Amino acid sequence: MTTHQQVTFLSDGARCAATHVVGSGTAFLGDRGRPCVVMAHGFGGTRDTGLDDYVEGFAAAGLDVFVFDYRGFGDSDGSPRQRVSYRDQRDDYRAAIAAARDISGVDPERIVLWGTSYSGGHVVPVAAHDPRVAAVLSLTPAMDGLAALGAIARRHPRMLLALVGHGLRDGFRAITRRRPHLMPIVGMPGTTSMISAAGAFEGYHELAGPTWRNEVCARAALAVAFNRPIRSASRLRVPMLVQIGETDAVAPPAAAHRAAQQADGFANVLTYPVDHFDVYQGVWQQQILADQIKFLSQHASTHRSRERLAR
Questions:
Q1: HSE (side-chain half, CA atoms, 13 Å) at 81
Q2: What is the structure's pLDDT at 305?
Q3: Of 61, 98, 189, 269, which sees the most CB atoms within 10 A?
Q4: Residue 25 CB: number of other CB atoms within 10 A?
Q5: pLDDT number for residue 158
Q6: Measuring CA to CA, which residue among 311, 298, 68, 262 is closest to residue 254?
Q7: Is the pTM above the cut of 0.90?
Q8: Which of 59, 231, 209, 236 is nearest to 133 (CA)?
Q9: How confident is the model at residue 306 (pLDDT cuts 50, 70, 90)?
Q10: Quick one: 258 exposed, middle or buried, by C-beta within 10 A (0-12, 13-18, 19+)?
Q11: pLDDT of 209-228, one tens digit each?
Q12: Beta bridge partners of 114
């Protein structure tokens, strides 16, 4: 049975909530402890929303896990609530990494970054600026916000105008120190929401945990185009596994392929015949998890750790 401990850490003064899960067995155990997978959810997600099968799978394989809520989401503090800021969320990852490295039994030189969707992009710039990170797992990643916005503009130009309008309204309310203007994270096709691809509404709600809320500060729509993890890919110097859904209607697969190409030989790519929300449960979740553990056995083993320390 795995051990779960509820912990907190500070990120820019905000108390963030996390769960530390201790790995089982000795498969990854070294003189300095076990590797630790630091993980958080995608756009508007919380740690109780569809991540449990990955958390338990890593722990059963012998890896520690540190899964956290961003500031303003889930059980974490932070105001305003439900505000997605890719810059703040990347800082939250950095603070979570520091907290994980301080845990007794965690090998600080074998931190693994795990991200999905929006956070599948976050892990790239975070790892590119932290040479101590051992490996990166990037699942159905949102690598290029500009490309995503372009896809919306081509398919649903009126939707893009509506998103900008809601974003400006919320931005004005922020400037005038009023309550945020919220809009749905996910909605049915044709409705105004941050994600309205076919199947997304059902897929996200099927995963939703107790702390998840289908709302976000609308100003996030104005920042999407500026979130471009692909620009950091060429600076990556740690092994990265990029797992792409061939029919992903939310995070453009082409952008993920381009980011992997720019990683200059540090990225391995695996593709699966799945859509964006098909990776959290069922047979494809099991296959994707198995591929991640196989990748980590090659790149986060004690042997690889000794090689890194010798350099």
A1: 12
A2: 58
A3: 61
A4: 12
A5: 83
A6: 262
A7: yes
A8: 236
A9: low
A10: middle
A11: 999 999 999 999 999 999 99
A12: 39, 137
Of 282, 310, 275, give the one whose Cα is nearest residue 200. 275
- Alpha-carbon Rg for the chain, nearest whole angstrom, is 19
Q: What is the pLDDT of residue 301?
A: 82
Q: Is 154 exposed, middle or buried (0-12, 13-18, 19+ CB in 10 A)?
A: exposed
* C-alpha to C-alpha distance for 275 and 65, rounded to whole angstroms: 26
Three-class HEC string of the chain: CCEEEEEEEEECCEEEEEEEEECCCCCCCECCEEEEEEEECCCCCCCCCCCHHHHHHHHHHCCEEEEECCCCCCCCCCCCCCCCCHHHHHHHHHHHHHHHHCCCCEEEEEEEEEEECHHHHHHHHHHHCCCCEEEEEEECCCCCHHHHHHHHHHHCHHHHHHHHHHHHHHHHHHHCCCCCCEECCECCCCCCCCECCCCHHHHHHHHCCCCCCCCEECCHHHHHHHCCHHHHHHHCCCCEEEEEECCCCCCCHHHHHHHHHHCCCCEEEEEECCCHHHHCCHHHHHHHHHHHHHHHHHHCCHHHHHHHHHC
Q: What pLDDT was estimated at residue 159? A: 85
